[in-house]
Design a protein that fits this description.
mainly beta, Lipocalin, 53% strand
Length: 183
């Protein structure tokens, strides 16, 4: 009985402390293939990378209204008509890395990141081929993939439409290490 209690306590302590990295400087972009939008840039996504005993996770959350466009017409159309940001204010991406990376060894790692992408309250599973650079307790994360807009019920997202059928989504993020206690 004492052994089970001790093992349970040690297990709790080891999972209670997690290595956490948070965004220091990040940029997410949507590059559209239609004629109405060019590229929307969000310079304020919240990016968190956590390593626990259950694995390494990556979470990205960004406000739709923080995507900037070359002109106010594109910004208004993107927010009001296509993304309906008053109903669906965030884009969220989260998942666990398939391959474990060693956060104590500087280097460049290319891993698969199976993620749940949620746009307009609709979730789709996407596997991002992700490049992670570990350098002195800092991480640089980069991935890029094509998202089919109709998968997220974005209006008028068809071949030949003003916004196009697809958008290239890119994340480029620099993260710094912090120690955290999970509750």
């Amino acid at each position: 009985m004492k052994t089970v209690l001790l093992l349970t306590l040690l297990s709790f302590i080891s999972t209670a402390f997690a290595q956490t990295y948070v965004s220091k400087m990040s940029e997410a972009t949507f590059s559209f293939k239609g004629t109405l939008f060019t590229k929307g840039v969000n310079r304020k996504p919240a990016v968190t990378f956590r390593e626990t005993t259950s694995g390494q996770s990556l979470t990205i959350a960004m406000e739709v209204k923080q995507f900037e466009f070359p002109d106010s017409h594109q910004h208004d159309e993107f927010n009001e008509t296509f993304m309906e940001s008053h109903y669906f204010p965030q884009v969220r991406i989260s998942g666990m890395l398939k391959e474990k990376i060693d956060l104590n060894v500087n280097g460049i790692y290319v891993v698969n990141f199976p993620a749940k992408v949620t746009i307009r309250a609709i979730s789709q599973n996407v596997i991002f081929k992700t490049r992670i650079e570990v350098m002195n307790k800092e991480l640089k994360i980069f991935f890029e993939d094509i998202l089919k807009l109709s998968d997220f019920n974005i209006p008028y997202s068809s071949e030949g439409s003003e916004i196009g059928r697809d958008a290239v989504f890119t994340l480029n993020s620099n993260l710094q290490s912090i120690q955290s206690y999970t509750r």
